[in-house]
Write a structure and sequence with these properties.
Length: 225
């Protein structure tokens, strides 16, 4: 499967000059939820920064599971001119995702080199303009996309998103060690879906265990949680 929008630029281009670049990596909530907790955190933080007056871009680098357009309420396709793409905008946030380039029911069945090329074109060919923050929602794991990102940009830091379960925490630790080996600062650890609040009685229920993120942050040299 090929897309005319993904073609090699005629001239070499440089990465956009952003004040801050943050990468997001986490373990998805597997069978318990169809949504990725990391994407929820990335979208909410991007919108919160935009509400405070910052110029924010949100890049959905999870090519195989792009959830950003759904969470941001975006359905239209971006416009292209020449070798460049104009990002879409929602809630005062500029965004780009594979989810706006292919139909929702069409899977993207690509190997590592094609994923890396798509990420480079999202970074180089999208006209992001002046930004204070570029938030990058990465896919789960420690594969080609993460490596390509670190090789393409100088990141301000990485934020890890996890749920309280032991399995999710183990994967978050692997992501942390990957970024440390690549000399990317760790900004913090976010524990998502920490508890459920009953709508009837208001009591809290720790459905996915409790306190795993805080315990991990203390074991990992007290990274912020």
């Amino acid at each position: 499967m090929t897309f005319p929008i993904f073609r090699r630029p005629k001239r070499p281009t440089r990465p956009p000059n952003h004040s801050h670049k943050a990468a997001w990596v986490s373990k998805r909530i597997r069978a318990s939820s169809p949504l990725s907790c990391k994407t929820t955190v990335a979208v909410n933080l991007a919108c919160a920064l935009a509400q405070r007056g910052a110029l924010v871009g949100l890049l959905d680098a999870d090519v195989h599971g792009p959830n950003v357009p759904l969470m941001m309420g975006v359905k239209e396709q971006p416009m292209a001119f020449g070798d460049h793409i104009l990002p879409l905008r929602a809630h005062n946030v500029k965004l780009m995702s594979m989810g706006v380039l292919v139909p929702a029911d069409v899977p993207v069945i690509w190997r590592g080199p094609m994923l890396s090329q798509a990420l480079r074109q999202f970074l180089m060919d999208v006209v992001w303009g002046a930004l204070d923050y570029l938030m990058i929602d990465l896919p789960p794991g420690t594969g080609d996309v993460q490596l390509s990102l670190v090789q393409s940009l100088t990141l301000a830091g990485a934020v890890l998103v996890t749920t309280p379960q032991t399995v999710a925490l183990a994967d978050a630790v692997k992501g942390l060690e990957m970024f440390r080996q690549m000399h990317v600062p760790i900004l913090g650890l976010v524990e998502n879906t920490s508890y459920y609040v009953c709508p009837d009685c208001g009591s809290r229920h720790a459905i996915f265990a409790h306190g795993g993120g805080r315990r991990s942050s203390q074991e990992l040299e007290r990274i912020p949680v």
